[in-house]
Specification:
By secondary structure, the protein is α/β, with parallel strands linked by helices. 26% of the residues lie in helices and 20% in strands. The chain has a single domain (5-225), classed as Spore Coat Polysaccharide Biosynthesis Protein SpsA, Chain A. The protein has helices at residues 23-43, 63-71, 132-141, 152-159, 215-225, and strands spanning 5-7, 12-17, 46-50, 77-81, 85-87, 104-108, 119-127, 169-172, 179-180, 205-207. Helix 3 crosses helix 4 (152-159). It is globular.
Amino acid sequence: MESSIELLGRNVCMVMGYTASNPKFAEMGSFSVKVNEDYCFKHGYGFRLYTSGFAEDRHPSWSKILFVQDALKSYPWVMWVDADAIVTNPEIGLEQFLDDKYMMIVGKQNWTDQVWNSVNSGVFLIRNDPDVDEFFKMVWADTKDTEDNGWEQAGVRRVMEVEPFKSKIKVVCRREFNSLVYHECFGPVGDINHDTESWHKGDFIAHYGWRRNDTVEAMKATLAGCGI
């Protein structure tokens, strides 16, 4: 499997992917990739972009599993970042998030819901653990349709409940590295816990959501407001 962009680095590799055939995602992805690649270059991290090699029989979001597995062949840690998310505080290093006691580190979604495995897999960290291939194998096999319309996130949530994975997954406050930039397309404001999920200036990553039509303009405005 070949990446479209590869920046060699140390310790951890940030991985992104988007389907360039869709003009909306191509515009959004080309902008977010530049921002995130610059961040990785600044800190000496690896960076990979995949714009081909997507699984043809399911939603493109599933292919993040293939791309992350590919990068794990070369790095002890991989950070997946969706194409609608950008680094907004480049002074923060990834080392502060890494925890070798765990295989996966992921942010909790909807803190008003106390179910521990309600996570967002748009941004996550994963370690080259002996159980990681089995974890991804089980997620890939879990194609039961749910509220996520068959996206991989639903499978991640269910497989998280299974040992030995349950003991190896660290669920953190979403704002640590996957802050949501709220938009009306996400539903009522009351569905979001703004203290633990919504982006605040100084947060590491801003995640915009692919449903909105002004993502690139919003990204540019955020960066300008942060002095980037």
